[in-house]
Amino acid sequence: FIQMLRSAKKRDVVQLLRTAPEEMLPFVVEAAVAAQSVASLAALSDFLDFGKEPKSMLENFLYAAAFSPRPSGELLRLVLDKLDGKQLAPEVWETGIVAMGSLVGKLCQQKLCELQQEVERGVETILGGLRGAKEESEVVIYLLALGNAVLPETIPILLDHAEEGPATIATAAVSALKRFPTRHISSKVKRAMRRIFHEKRKSYEKMCRLAAAEILLDNEPSPMDIINLLLATNELETEMTTFLMLKVQNSLR
Q: Locate the Vitellogenin domain: which residues (predicted)?
């Protein structure tokens, strides 16, 4: 079906989208996203009205875009255009921002960061939104998007939110840092994770401290880090202690 869509003309894809039975429409939308031909993406652009379509249909489209294994710049542009300046349902907006981060990250993995203007626009949309976010829930969504994008230049921003932000924001920022490969987990990042786990500056939520410990254990841990983490288990809840002991055992194996 995807192969057929790749060779179809725009008007045929639009017709297919408009005449598909309601229960089949999500399948056709996902297939059109997967096809990623100029015609199929143009047809989706014409067909999807983010001001009128049911939330479930729009989220279906955004999920399909986010999970696309090798997205194109055109697909990212379509998502950006559909989100730009629209009054959206909160669920659709959240899914769209997180999907945007995923698309940016995958395009950069394909070494297309500097070749696609859409990537720069996507990054600026996320960072600009983060700077202007007023509610904690909004900040968390933008941090999730940065976690999906996995851009090394955003690590200082994530560290700042991890150490200085309120509980939910700190947890989201540390979780985003977990997505980065070892080569980007610098000594500066590790020092911050030690401060968070050992609560040197303030108290942190359990999940935030565990995520910080995971970063330390999963990225070439030093003997002293392992010793300090094990010593800390004497003062932790049973669940946290069990989790950390299993992580250390896995590292030893």
A: 1-234
Give the dihedral of Cα atoms 80, 84, 86, 90; nearest 10 deg: 60
- Can you read off the two tokens belonging to residue 202? 């303030």
Say if CB 49 and CB 17 are below 8 A apart. Answer: no
43 neighbors 28 (Cβ within 8 angstroms): no
Q: How many Å apart are CA 32 and CA 64, to the nearest integer?
A: 9
Instruction: Please say whether the dihedral angle defined by the alpha carbons of residues 206, 197, 162 and 108, taken in this order, is positive or negative.
Output: negative
Amino acid at the residue 27: F
**Integer Cα distance of 102 and 104 in angstroms:** 6
Q: Is the pTM of this model over 0.85?
A: yes
Alpha helices in 36-183 (DSSP H): 38-47, 55-66, 73-83, 90-109, 117-132, 136-149, 155-164, 167-177
Note down pLDDT in tens along the chain; length 253 residues: 999 999 999 999 999 999 999 899 999 999 999 999 999 999 999 999 887 778 888 999 999 999 999 999 999 999 999 998 778 888 999 999 999 999 999 999 988 877 678 999 999 999 999 999 999 999 999 999 999 999 999 999 999 999 999 999 999 999 999 999 999 999 999 999 999 999 988 899 999 999 999 999 999 999 999 999 999 988 888 988 999 999 888 877 8
| Three-class DSSP category at 132 | helix
